[in-house]
Amino acid sequence: MAITSAIGIGSGMDINGIVSQLVQAEGAPAFNSIDRKESAANARLSALGRLKSSLADFRTATGKLNELGAFSTHKASSANESLLMASAGLGAAAGSYSLEVQQLAEAHKLASVGFAGADTVIGSGALTLSVGGSSFSLALDASNNTVTGIRDAINKASDNTGVNASIINVDDGLGGTVAKLVLTAKNEGTANAITVTATEDPAVPGLSQLVYDPLGSAVTNLTEQNAAQDAKILVDGQMATRSTNSIGDVIQGVTLDLKKAAVGTVFNVDVSLDETSIKEVTDGFVAAYNGLMGIVKDLGRYDATTKEGGALVGDSLLRTVQSQVRSAVAETVSSASSSYNSLATIGISIDKNGVMSSDSAVFSNALSNNLAAVSDVFSSSDGVAARLSTRLDQYLNSGGTFDVQTKSLNKQISSYADDRDTVQLRLDNLQRGMLKQFIAMDVAVGQFQSTGAYLAQQLANLGR
């Protein structure tokens, strides 16, 4: 409540200042209490946010260990990358293979005779193109029967799945140029050879110039620029024929990208376990664990000398998170069926200060001796990653521990504004009441002073 500052007429006191100080003194404990509670709630909310973020990072790193193929990662290398590039994926197994690229796959390409220009009329009627077991037909008339019109009709046909049409302008051998219609199969291989047949309109003949049907009518009025051709490779001396130059079904889990044919040139493709990629995943797990435990330590610290502590010192949630994560990574994995049945046995250990580290030599030796067992330590039914995934989800998923506590804290923080309003309303009422009392007192003092002055005057007159 705003009060106009005034000096008491009767008493000469600063009534406004006195009342304000009294009201402020009355309200200070209540406001300070609200401030302390709000500050504590905000500090806890911030601390929970840090802990949740670190747990989320740890869950991401843990999830990578549980992904399909995390411990079946292989790499493939070609001894002659100018002829063939190799890459490994899921399902690849270690091995060495001899390769020879005998033939590259080629896309079928046909070219028409030369026409005077791109706007030259070829002919009207129907043109049917077949490739890869599919065919589509074009109706050609005065609106689209030129070299350009036929090219566009082919490319825009909604049922065209296998042919690209283009126009080239080349020398005619007589000092001029001609336009040729070129048809190219979208995919390589003999299965994608192009066939063209035509039904001419007698009034505007000429479509027969585009016929290419070697196995049907035996008419081949288009010139074959590139024959449809399959790729051929020898793998350990055995022939493999495919319609594409990117071959992924000859060596399981390995993609072979053919670059150049070289009959008689034999080279090796080696497939081996990609320890580097596996170690990147496990190192990420170790780093995320240490990051999480660093946050836990900071939030739960207490300095006996300064009497200062972290935002969650003594907090039961922090202790539970720390305990459950530690036990999940330290316990033996019952579903692992060999001597490799814990993180410690594969070279990942935790020192007396709670810091996790990985011994590269021990880990590499475990991968070489029993890759499946190392994978089981992490991703089997009772593996470290599987155990952590279940526990972390309970904390982090919608409706989980952090979600519930965050909502509760936000609700508390919102209620403190209402508490302040309640205290202020009480103080406003108190201020109005006190102001009335002081004003009444001031009036009374003024009246007493006036009466005293009158009496003094009367007494003085009696003495004359």
- How many strands, which pairing sense, and closed or not: the largest β-sheet? 5 strands, antiparallel
Estimated radius of gyration: 44 Å
Question: Counting H and I runs of at least 4 residues, what is the number of helices?
Answer: 8
What share of residues are in beta strands?
Answer: 15-25%
Which series of helices and strands comes N to C? HEEEEEEHEEEEEEEEEEEHEEHEEHHHH
Q: Domains counted in the coordinates: how many?
A: 3
The strand order across the widest sheet is: 1-17-3-13-14
**What is the helical fraction, as a range of percent?**
40-55%
Structure description:
This protein is α+β, with helices and mostly antiparallel strands and 464 residues long. The chain has three domains: 33-69 and 276-403, no CATH class; 74-105 and 230-273, no CATH class; 109-226, no CATH class. 42% of the residues lie in helices and 22% in strands. It has eight helices and 21 strands. It has helices at 15-66, 147-156, 275-300, 316-330, 360-369, 371-379, 384-396, 401-462, and strands at 74-78, 84-88, 95-103, 109-111, 125-131, 134-140, 163-171, 177-185, 195-200, 212-213, 219-220, 223-226, 231-235, 238-242, 246-247, 254-258, 267-273, 302-303, 308-309, 348-350, 356-358. The strands form seven sheets. It has a five-stranded antiparallel beta sheet, with no helix packed on it. A four-stranded antiparallel beta sheet has the order 7-8-4-12, covered by helices on one side. Strand 7 and strand 8 form a beta hairpin. Helix 1 (15-66) packs antiparallel against helix 3 and helix 4 (316-330) runs antiparallel to helix 7. The longest helix is centred in the last third of the chain and has 62 residues, at 401-462. It is elongated, with a radius of gyration of 44 Å. 26% of the residues are buried. The model is unreliable at 1-6 (pLDDT under 50).
